[in-house]
Amino acid sequence: MIQQWCVENKEHGIDRIPTPRIPISSSDVSELLTKITNSSKLEMQDSRLCEELVTRVKNLASESDRNKCCFVTNGIGKVLSSAFLELSKGKNAKNASTEEVILSTLTLFLPLDVKSKTILGSISLLRCIAWFLKNGSLSSRRNAVLVLREIMKLEEKEKVEILLNIEGALEGLVKLVKEPICPNTTKASLLTIYHMVINSSSQSSRSRFVDVGLVELLIEILVDCDKSICEKALGVLDGILSYEEGVKRAYNYALSVPVLVKKLLRVSDLATEFSVSILWKICKNENNGDCGVLVEALQVGAFQKLLLMLQVGCSEITKEKASELLKLLNVHRDRAECVDSLDFKSLKRTF
User: Which residue numbers delimit the U-box domain (predicted)?
Assistant: First the structure.
């Protein structure tokens, strides 16, 4: 009866009624994961079989959330991470294809547990992931940065320094920001860089963030981006400007002050707090006789916006920085007039 109905309605685009897929059982998942572990072991390594098994996991997990939860419950993150580690030890060019499939499959199970992230943070795997970040296809570069973001969330200084010392790793992340693949990849790259910036301890590592042109790139991104990317870019910029080299680069870049003042009160509370912090770092280090940065900030309306921000309300730390900025700006108010003063006419008064 159903078959006859389908045939009669084929001209309307109906070929068949899809049969519901049977969810995978926990025992089947456990057996599959054991096979992956065995096929990846160095002494009996079979990368082709391992790739087939991981591909099956990927297909099953993509079928339903129930299947995905079943894999997570049975420790899929640890199994895939361990298999990835074993394959990276094999030093076999044929393993690259399997490693790429594992990397892709891992992204289906984000966020990863701490044990999985710890395994992925080993030196050999960080080098392997960095290789995909630099040399892989667009999808591989995307998967690599998504996994790197998870590893950097551990906020371990040792892993940050290892990654920074891998040739081309930082440049690969910057390239994903400069030449974005998709918004999610850009956000993951910015978050990865952010964790690296705030957890970097050596002077040479700090200088690298500046040397790769991150300060100028982030300010250019801020000119036209969505809320989420704006907040992350400002967070990274605020971190870099904790270093003297970063402050100097921002101070000497023509777009810095106009763009940062533009973001005050226009994006979100978080973006405003980051913008105030960055402006404070630039302006408090003003050492030019003509106080050019302060005058420029006045010309683009920083005084009125900061005053309005204090009236609206903000966090205590931001309030302190905004108050200090207003004191610095107030000294030079007779030298410049805000180009948008009509918008804040009623707020113009001595601070």
Answer: 38-346
**CB-based contacts of 110: which residues, under 8 Å, 6+ apart?**
146, 150
135-142 — which CB contacts under 8 Å span 24+ positions? 136/100, 138/181, 139/104, 140/100, 140/103, 140/104, 141/172, 141/176, 141/181, 141/185, 142/181, 142/182, 142/184, 142/185
DSSP secondary structure, 297-332, as one string: HHHTTHHHHHHHHHHH---HHHHHHHHHHHHHHHTT
pLDDT, tens digit, 9 for 90 and up, residues 250-308: 999 999 999 999 999 989 999 999 999 999 999 987 765 567 888 899 889 899 999 99
Backbone angles phi, psi at 348, to 5 degrees: -75, 110
pLDDT value at 16 more than 70: no
Phi first, then psi: give them for residue 318, nearest 5 degrees.
Answer: -65, -35
Q: Is the separation of the CB atoms in 99 and 88 below 8 Å?
A: yes
Instruction: Tell me the C-alpha distance between 91 and 128, whole Å.
Output: 11
Residue 314's CB: how many other CB atoms inside 10 A?
19
Question: Tokens in use for 130?
Answer: 């960095």
Q: What is the pLDDT of residues 132-143, one digit of tens each?
A: 999 999 999 999
- Kindly report, residue by residue over 148-172, the tens digit of the pLDDT: 999 999 988 899 999 999 999 999 9
Give the whole-angstrom CA distance, residue 53 versus residue 237. 43
Report the alpha-carbon distance of residue 201 to residue 117 in Å, rounded. 21
> Which phi and psi angles does 340 have, rounded to 5°?
-110, 30
